[in-house]
Amino acid sequence: MKNVEFSYSISPKKNILKIVHWHVKQGEQLFIHGPSGSGKSTLLNLICGLQTANLGNIRVLGKSFDMMSTRQKDKYRAEHIGYIFQQFNLIEYLNAIDNIKLARHFSSSAHEADFLPKVHALLLTLNLTSQDWYRPVNQLSVGQQQRVSIARALINKPKLIIADEPTSSLDQASRDNFISLLTSLCKKYGSTLLFVSHDMSLCQHFDISIALAQINSAKVIN
Ligand code: ADP
Ligand code: MG
Predict the structure, then answer these.
(1) Which of 9, 59, 132, 193 has the most CB within a 10 Å radius?
(2) Residue 219: its pLDDT value, please?
């Protein structure tokens, strides 16, 4: 990111983010902490091209979203970026496999013949056994749902994984298990990991930790 400034259109004079220069190396696992409302989700949405900066340049995996249509952005995102959300964003009435298939749908590898065996192997790695694969996800525990959301984010082996406070509804044991599964799979696939949370105690799980305020010079007052 270079000279990036962002404000929401309802309050255009209030910069949420002002980032003069920021760079993340490929393969790094970076934890970004900051209080609620400090702009963490906004930053991730800029990186995914879900929001557009008012000023400045953002390059993700060597590409800029500036010249892409919405459709091209969707495709690029589906192929190269895996997103794990705070509220999982799984489709409740679909089972684990169908939720993962949906993520695959938008990418060019959607019709690979070995897709299902790959999903099964990944779910087993994430300690989800076959009896859990075909139940609607709303019948799974919160910890199991979070592991389905890891599988969905990772099934395309994306170069970049973005996690937006994914552990806030987990107890400590499930949280530690979730982070260790996520970080080890990212290492295995060589994926860069950006993980944001307000919870500073998660720092210990990551190679590098920064406060959002270290890179963001906008003063966000809520
Ligand atoms: P965090 O993820 O760190 O909790 P956010 O990025 O969600 O912070 O929000 C940063 C600031 O932007 C907050 O002041 C919030 O109220 C504001 N904000 C977030 N989303 C929107 C939106 N869609 N429209 C207007 N303001 C928003
Ligand atoms: Mg947020």
Answers:
(1) 193
(2) 77
